[in-house]
Amino acid sequence: MAKMWAGRTAGHVDQGADDFNSSIRFDWRLYQQDITGSMAHAAMLGARHIITPAEADTLIAGLESILHDLESGALAVDFSCEDIHMFVEQELTSRLGDVGKKLHTARSRNDQVALDMRLYLRDEVSEIMALTESVIAAIVGQAEANQDVIMPGYTHLQRAQPILFAHHLLAYAMMLLRDVDRLKDCRKRMNVSPIGCCALAGTTYNTDRYMESKTLGFDGIALNSIDGVSDRDFCVETMSAIAMLMMHLSRFSEELILWSSWEFQFIELSDAYTTGSSIMPQKKNPDMAELVRGKTGRVYGDLMALLTSLKGLPLAYNKDMQEDKECTFDAVDTVKMCLQVFAPMIATMKPLPDNMKKAAQTGFINATDLADYLVRKGLPFRSAYKISGEIVAKCIADGCVLETLPLADYRSFIPLFDEGLYEAIDLNTCVQKRISVGGTSPESVKAQLKYVKNVCKGE
After folding, report:
1. pLDDT value, residue 5
2. Nearest to 440 by CA among 42, 135, 171, 132
3. What's the pTM value of the predicted model, to 2 decimals?
4. Three-state secondary-structure class, residue 158
5. The pLDDT of residue 3
6. Could you tell me which of 43, 47, 40, 34 has the C-alpha nearest to residue 90?
7. Dihedral sign computed on CA atoms, order 152, 154, 160, 163
8. Residue 413 burial (CB < 10 Å; 0-12/13-18/19+)?
9. Closest CA to 310 of 327, 324, 329, 297
10. In the prediction, which pLDDT does 17 show?
11. How far apart are alpha carbons 443 and 329 in whole angstroms?
């Protein structure tokens, strides 16, 4: 079958080349956006009397019937077509005859596909934001339920200082809030209509680009027609934001994997989000968290693929730009799949407070508070630091912890110690006294919880 663009050439392409050139096997998912954009275009053509209003109404009705039939299953996509745009136009012409051939007046597939991708990503970004907010809500739920649980905080994966479990969880909530913010920025910048830019130079018809833009819910139009058809910044920016979101999910996944191991036993993941071993009956594997961690690399690859495809392209449109779709679709599908499993995995995990507290008690994570105790007694911090380190070394040698070392042993290092030191180095005291804004004190954590919930409410 000859192509709809036949003219300068016969339109007959070698079958292998045709398959190589075709994009319908993946861009078929844009059918809704393509038809919606085409209806807006037909309405504009009629309003500007480029075609008659009656013809515009006929085109819109025909497009609506195609959309209905595709969504009901009455019509199947013809995968022998070159792309979704050609399929829709071919089906429309088949139903309407010559009137259907008028739809493509004053536009090109170049601005058409740019429009479809913007409409698609605008919807997907909104969904990704909503899914991310569901993960934040799950984190908030766990943080609220565990505000008094003490755990060791880590640096270099070494026990460092006592913190509240809720404080640790809220660090991820803050990361995800920034991800939502970045996605909002992406959506704002992508919400610009390219339709009417045509192939690259605009058109000789007296079109109304602003009408189409408003009809489709855009905030404005691309002001340079070459940029309008050749820009894929909105794809790159969205994928970059998605990659960062996946990085945050991956970091959280790594901790869930560690925390659920026998070596930590800080949490237990629900059976619904773990699997067993085919040979070792005792195993409970955190496969969902591991898959999120693994799929992060996949999304990074999607971003790099698009950046590499775009890096040497001259203006305006080039067929290379067809490569924007598969990597964009894959990144979007992957992050949505990860978010959908992540929220309930967090909501259903069971913290194990006793194990966290025990780990905190045996890691000398109150050594900084011991030094601070001596500073409040008038000793310079660096001197207090040295003495505290020597005391920790003695505890290790004696097989005890700071809380159980006798006062006489403390005083053998420096006479400044008195009975008050045991309250000063109690883990609850250590947490409660970290009163700086953003710190791990109960009041600070309450303030962080309030902030996260207010942001999610839009306050």
Report:
1. 47
2. 171
3. 0.92
4. strand
5. 58
6. 34
7. negative
8. middle
9. 324
10. 87
11. 43
Among 278, 276, 274, 298, residue whose Cα is nearest residue 287: 274
Q: How many CA atoms lie within 13 A of 179 on its CB side?
A: 30
Residue 51: enclosing H or E segment and its boundaries?
Answer: none
Cβ within 8 Å of residue 334, ≥6 positions away: 246, 295, 298, 299, 302
> CB burial class (10 A; 0-12, 13-18, 19+) of residue 458?
exposed
Residue of 258, 260, 259 lying closest to 271 (CA atoms): 260
Torsion 449-452-457-459 (CA) sign: positive
Task: Give which of 111, 96, 88, 31 is closest to 59, Cα–Cα.
Answer: 96
**Separation of alpha carbons 376 and 290, rounded Å:** 46
Taking the CA atoms of 43, 44, 48 and 51 in sequence, report the sign of the dihedral they define. negative
Confidence at residue 6, expressed as pLDDT on a 0 to 100 scale: 56
In this structure, what token pair is assigned to residue 451?
């902030």
Helix, coil or strand: residue 275 = strand
**Which residues form the catalytic set?**
156, 277
Task: Give per-10-residue mean pLDDT for the chain (459 aa).
Answer: 56 78 93 98 98 98 98 96 96 98 97 98 98 98 97 95 97 98 97 97 97 98 97 98 98 98 96 86 89 98 97 94 96 98 98 95 90 95 96 94 94 95 94 94 97 92
β-bridge pairing 267-268 and 350-351: antiparallel
Q: Is the dihedral of CA 397, 399, 405, 406 positive or negative?
A: negative
| pLDDT at position 283 | 79
